[in-house]
Amino acid sequence: MSATAPAPPSRTAATRDPLLDNAKFLAIILVVSGHLVEDLRDVPAAHALYFFVYLFHMPLFIVVSGYLSRNFTFSAGKARKLISGLAVPYVIFEVAYSLPRYFLYGKLDISLMDPYYLTWFLMSLFLWRLSTPVWQQLRWPLMIAVALSLLSGTSALPDELSMNRTFGLLPFYVLGLMLTPAHLDLLRRRWATVAGWVVLAAGLAGAFALHRVVPTEWIRWRHANLQIGVDDLTGTAIRVALLAAGGLLVMAFLAVTPTRRMWFSGLGAATMYAYLLHGFVVKVTERFPHQLVNPAGVAAMIALGVVVATVLCTPPVRRLFKWAVEPDISWAFTKLRRPEARVTTRVVKRRRGRHAGSAEPERPAAPAITSERSSAHI
Question: Is 13 inside any structural domain?
């Protein structure tokens, strides 16, 4: 008898891509360090670095979020994850970040519709993810998203639901939805890595050349064109340039990011902890800005950012704050019925209806066949 080759082992869980985890960890270092040097921008180098980082650090997170949301549907399981992973943490941290204002300034102002400080990202990501099925049905989703982003700059949108940032940064989320593993494979090529370093170097040089010319509000995506002080034609041109620069820098950053597992790859899976928690560290350092407004202080804050971002992604911190960042609220949901049970019930009812009134004895219903492949990707 001829021996048959053993079947390859089945994949029971989706394998994490080290490229994305590495990129998220390096990006959260940029986010934390950027916030820590924000009050030190009287130092020219700090202002230029701040401008450069803000061109693409949040767009990078948004692109990766879009890429990882490609399979989002309105199924019960996905909806529950949306509530427990974004909506509930949003409420918790909206309240948590409002408490220091109360203790320091005697002002308690909580508005769940108007995101405060870092929580805007949770609100915007919640809305972007809800819109995912819509973008996947359109023929030119990125073009439409860019048009909406540019149009949002022509109107003073309300602060509720973080509308300016939600619409302004929308193209980066849609770009992530359009990316495929084949696109990421292109970024792993040697030529892409070299091109990535060239683009990042050019972007850094451009930031040092233009950081005093371009108002900081442009890279924050918080206000309309007129609020920043330009007419809509000029503002639209600037927004097109910022979208193009952000997208190019995001691709360049991904191209230079290590593609193999690194010591920090596991930490990249927990960047939401660092994002939501580092704001409390920033609020403390904001009370000592004058002693740090010098090159040495900037270097110290950048180093502190690396340490804080790393520590906040570690397992001990995750265990300590899991209740806030990844709360288990399964008790608040009804019990999910198994898809197999629903399919079997429908088959049995259909066959019973077909044989009702017939003298012929009813045959037992055949076992329902479900697609494990499709359910595994929900």
Answer: no
First to last CA, the chain: 42
Where in the sequence is the domain holding 89, given as residue range(s)?
Answer: 18-332
- What is the residue type of 189? R
Mean pLDDT computed over every residue of the chain: 84
Instruction: Look at residue 8 and tell me if it is in a domain.
Output: no
> Residue 349: which pLDDT band, with cuts at 50, 70 and 90?
low
Select the more confidently predicted residue: 79 or 244.
244
Average pLDDT, integer, range 274-290: 86
CA separation for the pair 156, 226 (Å, rounded): 8
Residues 350, 212: one domain? no
Cα→Cα distances 88→81, 82, 93, 203, 217, Å: 10, 9, 9, 37, 29
Helix and strand tally (H, E) in the chain? Answer: 19, 0
Taking only Cα atoms into account, the Rg of the chain, rounded to an integer number of angstroms, comes to 25
Query: Does residue 3 form part of some domain?
Result: no
pLDDT tens digit string along 304-348? 999 999 999 999 999 999 999 999 888 888 876 665 445 445 544
Contact yes or no for 203/242 (Cβ under 8 A): no
Structural domain count of the chain: 2
Per the domain annotation, does 5 fall within a domain? no
Say what angle helices 295-312 and 18-36 make with each other, to 10 degrees: 140
Alpha carbons 64 and 24: distance in angstroms, whole number: 8
Do residues 350 and 227 share a domain?
Answer: no
**Which run of H or E residues covers position 315?**
helix 315-325
Instruction: Tell me, yes or no, whether 101 and 215 share the same domain.
Output: yes
pLDDT, tens digit, for every residue of 203-246? 999 999 999 999 999 999 999 999 999 999 999 999 999 999 99
| HSE (side-chain half, CA atoms, 13 Å) at 175 | 20
Rounded to whole angstroms, the Cα distance separating 72 from 164 reads 24
